[in-house]
# Entry
Amino acid sequence: MDNHLSQKFEEIVGKENVLASEVDRHSYAYDAAVLPPKLPALAVRPETPEALGRVVAACNELGLPLTVRGSGTNLSGGTIPSPGGVVALTGALNKIVEINEADMYAVVQTGVVTAKFAAEVAKRGLFYPPDPGSQAVSTIGGNVAENAGGLRGLKYGVTKDYVMGMSLYDVDGELVKTGSRTVKCVTGMNLHGLMVGSEGTLGVFNEIILKLVPPPKASKAMMAIFDDLLKASETVAAIIAAKIVPATLEYMDDFTIKTVEDFAHAGLPTDAKALLLIEVDGHPAQVEEEAAEVEAICKRVGATRIHVAKDAAERNKVWEARRAALSALARVRPTTVLEDATVPRSQIPAMVGALEKIAAKYRLTIGTFGHAGDGNLHPTILTDKRDHEEFKRVEAAIDEIFDVALGLGGTLSGEHGIGTAKSKYMAKEVGMGSILYARKLKKALDPKGILNPGKITGE
Amino acid sequence: MSEMRELVGLLKQIDDQLVACMRCGMCQAVCPLYGETGLEGHVARGKIALLECLADEVIKDPAGVKERLDACLLCGSCQANCPSGVKALDIFLKARAFLTGYYGLPPVKRAIFRGLLKNPRLFDSVMSIAAKFQGIFTRPVNDMVGSSCARVFSNLLEGRHFAPLAGTPLHATQAERDTPRGPSGLKVAFFYGCVVDKMFPRIGEAVLKVCDHHGVGVYMPHGQACCGIPALSSGDRDTFETLVAANMKLFGDQDFDVLVTPCATCTSTIKKIWPLMAEGLPESVRFKIRELAPKVKDVSAFLVQDLKVTDGLAAGGGDIAVTYHDPCHLKKSLGVSAEPRALLAANPRFRLVEMEGADSCCGSGGSFTLQHYDLSKRIGKRKRDNIVATGASVVATSCPACMLQIGDMLSQAGDRLAIRHPVEIYAETLAGR
# Structure
């Protein structure tokens, strides 16, 4: 290992926070995406914001690629480093700086874990809605960098709707401030808006100011079962047409239902073609009214069975089935490829139909579940990456899934990010002009191209 | 074995288990060690990734991988929370055995496991001599906790406050037993475990008292060997299998309904690890191990599920506040958490107060605390803080290894809490000695 390089970073973060041994380097070579690992030169774990800034400056000075890593749960390779680069770990920058109840905002360091933050906010009677599937471990910094979504997207929006401002380090290690603690702020360019979803390519986050909202006073969950996918989809459309916006509106296909039932024995009908999990929340009176209306819509459109949760325990049971979806699917085969192509919600039946055809065409097992309310589906391909012939078919299927999603007016990624996994498809969706524009922007802000190179715009 | 090629070959045997890890990283939420250090190499995902690198010969130096692998409490939190059902403990125990095969067992462990532990009678007599002389080297520090520390600073003890060896071990005060089924119609085999025998015989006495009271027949032979987990977790499969074989000689052909132990770690080892790991034993013995496994139960689970001793009892609302620590090997490994609490509630003098993170690891991890005392203390300190925050005067738990660790943490902080096993607290309510 390059001792000189280690020494340089030891001066900044301390000897114990430079991880440069063979095992350490291999420990930070991957994330949750099914992609080949890439070996960094070293990883550093700054314990102060100042040290983080100096790490960025040092990387720029030395021309070393820098990848910031929270919990490494990214599903598109966004936290896979460049070979020979530096990985900056944000785990020690995990302080909740402020939760302001009167003004309903919070200031957090980039490495704060999403679920821990949400729990602290809840303790003070407020609500931070974004709930990505990895929230138990994911960090706020990572959520902002990827513009993470979750189950509540339809009603409450996604991470971008909660970022009021931030401070970040530019490539020279200078601190940049953008946004404020106020609801309204038009002071300066909306740089924090630019940072959301930038996947670590434009700057390194320090502190983030997040909007908080009052929690709903009541909620009601129900499960509706269908013998026909089209009816489930029509139900979603009918609920929205009735001007009801459920907090969550989740979908599971027949394969997922069967797999969940085999795994969790939650009492799901294995002959069902589709299942919707619906939760409305808000003022108790409104919740009662909307729940009754949703139930009536489900019946009218043709749900074969509706189960309304009567209490917290029953509500938990309803959601158990959804929570078990990925676990159940993941156990079927060794490798689980979780995609997140997203279509306008009216196109869900077309998308699901296409997924069935793709599975048959490439002789693959695909289970689909996801957020029906916002069209963000998770076709989950169950495979074994060791079987090279099969994995080639998986890659071909993924290509086709994206073609179909784009053909239906959808998008490559609803919430997982582009990273390196999907950068090659970018031109198909946004065109070369958009990519070149983004590249010019990056070139101006990061002339040496050290900030998480290769992510989003390729190159 | 000393060839890298052989090591790679062995790791390939567990390739199907390794590949099941989808790198989602959810284990980071529950790993007590990762909670302290935040290092990827300390969490299950990181360890599995390193083993894959070793199996694929991408990593050339197995020593670094072994070091990461050894830094693990084997608490099973990762496995219990793994979305894709990766059998992390199986993987780690097997990999430790492979790597120990490659490097050999360190001399101290070799002397203890193969010279002492492997021979139960010798182990018993050495420990009873040690018990008589321990007062020369150690002094009591906390009479509530019941702990001692070294009289002069010792590298080995590192300032620990530990439970002294019992003056007389359980097997010296209690004769061997083989009593028939009484009014309950049930008979148990009683596997008391090393720590209960040599440090907490009072727990063993409580188990016997409860069995006598409820008319349960007891088979309790002397010469019981260690369950084998200290040897296995150090990768010493040879000693492990010798110990399992010795115990199977004692317990394999006997007539009983349930094998009970008051030790969470012994329970989960006999129930889950024996069938999995004793691959070197003859098929006839392995068959008996598989037959035994379903009959193995923690003593609280036996009393509540089989004897139904708490049925119809109201929850205790007594003056003494007791808080309960869930041993990892009971809750995460075997799903037993309600039963010990039911036993506590059955004593009207006590009132159960839950602590925050009752099921988070105490940091003992068996020999983890010997090799990584600093990390073990950091994890233990959190547990101590959560215990003390309840204001309880008694902390109960179902694993004597946790009792040792919690005792050390409480005693070092100068806290005056008693540490007890649920079966002791339940036994108090019964007439008799």
Residues 120-137 of chain B form the longest helix (18 residues). DSSP finds 23 helices and eleven strands in chain B. The two ends of chain B are 55 Å apart (CA to CA). Residues 4-103 of chain B form a domain with the Fumarate Reductase Iron-sulfur Protein; Chain B, domain 2 fold (CATH 1.10.1060.10).
